């Protein structure tokens, strides 16, 4: 019985072992089969994603090069190099030294004959320009050289060049930058994302330009030790340009290498990834559970790493594009705000100075000298600002157009302002030497805990407001945001909140300042001037609200309101049979669409029975309108029978040549000419007198009627009468009058 039981147990044991063994074998075979499928898919996905990674690297490097292409192109354009002779180009290159970026070791010009000139017009002897000559033959738009050893400096240089052609397509040489090889190393080091990736950049000869993991390879070639792998050298990669190989790393380990060309160069970018064998992935291969687990883990990790790599690269590429201004290579405003905000967060107890800078009359400069010259000016101004920014370890950015922002950590406000004044004097001395005369303006605002302002946007806004308070014709170049300006801000906020309601309630009213004929001392006209009687602020002069209305556009509505009031007033007098003189109305500088303005103007005018000879339109010389627009408006007004005067002539941004193009009837000279026209004895200053007489004589020669504003003394009146000025207006005769007072003055001085 025991024997039988033993035999049964043994049979059962054997059967169980066999079943378990068979099951394990089948499970293992099945696991191997599934694992093989997973492994194949894994390595396929692995390679595809690795290709995305290197493409991201390559595009990022290309973008870096493109930023320098743009700068090179800018130099060529703003200096008009293509239209200049060889000697003129050499001279231009010698002047570029002042505006060059510190990362450039040289800015050079290579003549068609192969002679090289650099900073200060220096000619280089025994200069090897083989790369440039080759590029010139191919006439590529841009080109990048392999590194060349600079013996005098003891370092390698990489150059970026651009062939120059005249309008007929003739080759005029090459302009280029040279920079240290370390510039590329530093840039690539910034975009390195993983210690497992072995990144190298190879030139056309197979030498490593950069190798982040093995610096000893730089400017050397690499050949694997394994006989079977020797063919996969760095020189092989430089010739083949693109591919995916399994080879040997610098330390003898097996690696997978994927390589791609860098667009616009003869270089190849390679990424080495430690080779992963199936045996290394398959933990406890005989246990299917661990096989599947290992595969899944590896897949997930690899996908996450690759996905993160690709995302990071394209984010970096996008970030670089958004962070730097194309013209100046300075930070954009957004990048500037981010960096400043970071400083503020980590230095809450400190004091910071923000400066908002622009160029006075930049629009006029742009119109007068052309866009290329204006761009050159902006670049020069940015580099000049950068000198002082670097001196005080500050931050600098370009906002838009001619707006620039600086940010400094300072000890205290008083010292900061004094230092600013000193540096402003130095800056003015520097810019005096520039080809185009220009004057910068600055708005300053401070950050400190007690100020309560903790946003960079707020500081920029305050500095911008301070700068905007500087009048175009003012001598001062800077303004500091303080409590007084805050009062102005609050007042302007109140004005903006109530301007529409004020128009509806007819709180705006018109006053009339007489114009006097100097030959007869009789009234011959009047200028309509708007005032605002606010319940809270009282009667406000136009200087308090007109500039604000010009900025927000409300002045257009106000203009047409004033026109209606004036036309109604003139009609009323004529209907009553009372005496009347022509009245001039002002057209604000924001009217930039001639036909639209004339249509609305005439709609109001035709409501009243008034002849055009009773209305004169004054346009501002300091208008934002271009000469063509002013000409069109003037012609349209003349067509309708109105006289046109140019107000504030001589203190704006226009040139005298404009008078030959725009047929205005009257020139009104601003009161600024008479403010300091008399000396201590009360007599006319000789220099001022000569200047004013010249203006009047010029106007007479151009057959323009002349009017001087701001006549306040008998000396001024007599002088203007002596030099044959036609008319005057000012407090010597009368201040602006209400309708009733003006009518009384009119009856007394006809």
Number of helical runs?
22
**CATH architecture descriptor of the largest domain:** Alpha-Beta Barrel
Number of strands: 26
Q: Using the coordinates shown, work out and report the CATH topology of the largest domain.
A: TIM Barrel
Summing up helix and strand content along with how strands pair, one would put the structural category as alpha+beta
Which radius of gyration do the C-alpha atoms yield? 39 Å
Mean pLDDT: 79
**How many domains make up the coordinates?**
4
Q: Give the low-pLDDT segments.
A: 1-6, 97-101, 277-307, 309-318
Give the distance, in angstroms, between the N- and C-terminal Cα atoms: 153 Å
Task: Specify the CATH homologous superfamily of the largest domain.
Answer: EAL domain
Q: What CATH first level of the largest domain would be assigned?
A: Alpha Beta
Largest sheet: 8 strands, mixed, barrel
Strand order of the largest sheet: 18-19-21-22-23-24-25-26
Overall 3D form:
elongated
The helix content, as a percent range, equals: 40-55%
Could you tell me the strand content as a percent range? 15-25%
Oligomer type: single chain
Layout of helices and strands:
Blueprint (H helix, E strand, L loop, with lengths): L1 H77 L7 H11 L7 E7 L5 E2 L5 E2 L5 H9 L4 E2 L3 E3 L4 E11 L5 E10 H10 L7 E5 L5 E4 L22 H7 L2 E6 L5 E8 L6 E7 L3 H4 L6 H36 L9 H14 L4 E9 L2 H8 L1 H21 L3 E4 L5 E7 L2 H19 L8 E8 L8 H13 L9 E3 L2 H22 L3 E10 L4 E13 L3 E3 L1 H11 L2 H21 L7 E5 L6 H12 L9 E6 L6 H13 L3 E7 L8 H4 L4 E4 L2 H4 L10 H16 L3 E5 L4 H9 L4 E3 L9 H10 L2
Parallel strand pairs: 16-17, 19-21, 21-22, 22-23, 23-24, 24-25, 25-26
Antiparallel strand pairs: 1-2, 1-7, 2-3, 4-6, 5-6, 6-7, 8-9, 8-12, 10-11, 11-12, 13-15, 13-16, 14-15, 18-19, 18-26, 19-20
Helix pairs in contact: 1-7, 1-10, 9-10, 10-11, 15-16, 16-17
